[in-house]
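Shipment paperwork, digital attachment
Item: protein structure file
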Amino acid sequence: MAATGQRVYNVGILMYPGVDLLDFAGPHGVLSHVSYNNNPVSPAHVFDLRLIAAQEDITASDPVTVKRHISIYDAHEDLDSFDVLIVPGGPLPVMQSIIDGNGPEYRFIKSYINDSRNDTRVLMSVCSAAFILASTGVLAGKTATTHSFALDALKDICQEATRKFGGNPTKVMKARYIDAGLTKSGMRIITSGGISCGFDASLYLASLKTSESASNFAAMVLEYIQPV
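Attachment content:
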């Protein structure tokens, strides 16, 4: 439990059938080890992590089945309470079906982007989930990344979004993660490369919300050596 005066950030991780296991478990594991007191035995947690889904049970692509913490519909009603929304990736056909289907997951992401009641929010994609962000137009004029195998496909989606919504082109490049800066409403956008890159993006997020030393300590607890 965080001490009085230490803010606990509410993090939603958006789940759906076919989500990649490490895309959501990696960030969840990293952020759960970030603490204000650098005490792995009795941590003062920085992040309160909740799995959001339309289904009560979600089967990942691996397949592993996990239970949600909160219904996507209840989370939608309490949208402004989420300081961070993490969108993990999955197989490309699953990403395309989310975009084309305009289902509850896609509508939730668009609502989070458009909500301006919490101007310190962070929207973070892991791996191929950058496709979903790109399709909404939120990456216009920004720099973004995804899995190195999918960079060209992301470029195509960004170009299509620019034609549809207007705005400046998106620069797509290979990287472990990219902080694309703030939207006009003040929301920060972070995209990460493939799978394990979500670890690095999560540690970066931790450094933004706490300190570099707290982020580094979490990496030590995980015995994770960040790529140079």
